[in-house]
Amino acid sequence: MFKFYKPKLWLILTDLILISVNIFVVFRFFPLTTQNPIEKYFVPANVLIAAWLVVSYFLDRYNSIKSKSFIQSAFSLFFTSVIILVIFGSFILIQPASPYSQNVLISVLMGVFVSLYLFLFAYYLYRYAVTYDTPNLNPDKRLSAVPHPSHPMSDDAVTERYKRITEFSGEKVINYLQKNTMLYESGTYIFTEFNEKELEDIEHYQYSTYIQLKRLNHIRGINKMLALVNEKLPDNGILVCCYKSQSTIKQRIFDKYPRPVALTVYIFYFLYHRVMPKFFLTKRLYYDLTEGKKRVLSKTEVLGRLNYCGFMLERQSKINDMNFVVARRVKNAAPLLDRNYGPLIKLKRTGKNGKTFSVYKFRTMHPYAEFLQQYVYENNDLQEGGKFKRDIRVTSMGRFMRKYWIDELPMLINLIKGDMKLVGVRPLSKQYFNLYTPELQQKRTNYRPGLLPPFYADMPKTLDEIQASELRYLKQCETNGELRTDFKYFFLILKNILFNKARSA
Q1: Taking the CB of residue 247, how many other CB atoms lie within 10 A of it?
Q2: Which of 48, 288, 339, 441 minimizes the number of CB atoms within 10 Å of its CB?
Q3: In 3-state terms, the chain is what percent helix, strand and coil (to 5)?
Q4: pLDDT, average across residues 410-416
Q5: What was the pLDDT predicted at 101?
Q6: Cα gap 164→211, rounded to integer Å
Q7: CA pseudo-torsion sign 261, 265, 266, 267
Q8: Res 414: pLDDT
Q9: Which of these, 114, 118, 119, 90, lies nearest to 102 by C-alpha position?
Q10: Which residue, 230, 203, 200, 225, is CA-closest to 215?
Q11: Would you say 207 and 187 are in contact if contact means Cβ atoms under 8 Å apart?
Q12: Can you tell me the distance from the alpha carbon of 247 to that of 297, in angstroms, rounded to the nearest whole number?
């Protein structure tokens, strides 16, 4: 039974705009016999629009579409188009000498149907992309995370486990697991698939070690699996997982084909198995086509996912062409949000008066790199220019973009917004900002950061030299005035870039 409802105005407005556009296109560009189609069809066009709105309302098209499926919305649109076509088409045919053209009616309605269908398709494509199915986690209810007592397995169980692992992963893997885990204890759980329901049904803290032998490249819902294991593990529990890295996949392709062919194959492989599952509009399609198999995962992404889901890296090993990771549970998993990795990113930086603002840049790092700041800080030294040596988070394309400042072009948005100025100290993350001396930290927060830092005027090599360079600039701002100092440094920086080949650190 039909129920009256309050229509969504934005849906009505969308219909009005697309109908008007299609009427204009038909009248303006289609070969019509009449010289003044707008004047001739003005009244019928408005009647058609009114009828469209009424029929759409009664077919529930202007009710909230958040609760509807794409199929339901598409069928409502189809039936609306058919009803309008029948009503107006019949009127034209019944009239013995109708001045109106049936072809005009069909052209307009076809254009409206296609336009609105594409609109619905784009809407649902986006909605499906940002709808994230999270597991039923209850970290707040984690009371006594004490592992159940563990005991050695029976000889038959040991033999069965040995056979199972050897058949699935090989002799080298069984030797690795024997050395690095309590493989033949009842407190160790082995799984070669990811069955969410099965994992949820396992009693909390029943196992202190989980070993996932199926490579992460073939698992759909990696974060979901990691978060569930995190919840099931006791404090300091162990997870072992494996994956085939991006560099290994690339090397195998280049070993298999001649270089020109290999380059082409790798580009298509990368776009299909790396870009598609990361782009929010195509990832649902990718998972439907591949079931999540053969994804390209970098070392950075795997370690970042582990950190994001509450694990700390213990050790890494490479067995044949597979990377094995032993990780320890150190905290609850972060809220599982749908993480999209488009080309434009926003980074939190410390600005004037110590306030945090978002800096816009082009992405130069692997997905989940943002969770490895502490890991890289602890495992890498600083190189000349104050950046980390051998920073695994940066992609090959990212290094090129950083070298020629391409990644910093979107910072012009910050310049327009007033968060930054043309010349000034570079905006720093909280991690880097804390490396600076208290004096320099205080002076930095007195001024807005800049697009062109004093680094390019002095070209310092160490962190101490960078701090000395910025301190010198800031003291000149205090003594000589900010505008005068920025004017002087602008030409020093320009000289180094144009004539001394200064490049981004």
Answers
A1: 11
A2: 288
A3: 55, 10, 35
A4: 92
A5: 78
A6: 13
A7: positive
A8: 92
A9: 90
A10: 225
A11: yes
A12: 9
pLDDT for 156: 95
Helix (H, G, I), strand (E, B) or coil at 487: helix
N-terminal to C-terminal alpha carbon distance within the chain = 68
C-alpha distances in Å from residue 399, one per residue of 273, 366, 445, 504: 22, 12, 29, 10
Question: Residue 102 to residues 22, 436, 454: CA-CA distances in angstroms?
Answer: 16, 76, 71
Q: Which amino acid is at 392?
A: I
Paired with 315 in beta bridges are 326
DSSP 430: H
**Torsions phi, psi for 51 (to 5 deg):** -65, -40
Q: What is the pLDDT of residue 385?
A: 47
pLDDT greater than 70 at residue 386: no
Question: What residues have CB less than 8 Å from 487, skipping those under 6 apart?
Answer: none
In whole angstroms, what is the distance from residue 462 CA to residue 211 CA? 43
Report yes or no: 360 and 346 within 8 Å, Cβ to Cβ: yes
Distance, CA of 446 to CA of 375 (rounded, Å): 31
* pLDDT tens profile 31-81: 776 777 777 888 888 999 999 999 999 999 999 887 787 788 889 999 999
Does pLDDT of 349 surpass 50?
A: yes
Instruction: Give the pLDDT confidence of 87-118 residue by residue, as tens digits.
Output: 888 877 777 666 777 788 888 889 999 999 88
Least confident span in 66-80, 128-142, 295-309, 405-419: 128-142
Q: What single letter denotes the amino acid at residue 2?
A: F
Q: Which among 478, 467, 469, 477 is positioned nearest to 439, based on CA atoms?
A: 467
- Contact predicate 184/177, CB 8 Å: no
Which residues are paired to 209 by β-bridges?
Answer: 188, 238
Where on the phi/psi map is residue 389: left (φ > 0), alpha (ψ -120 to 50), or beta? beta
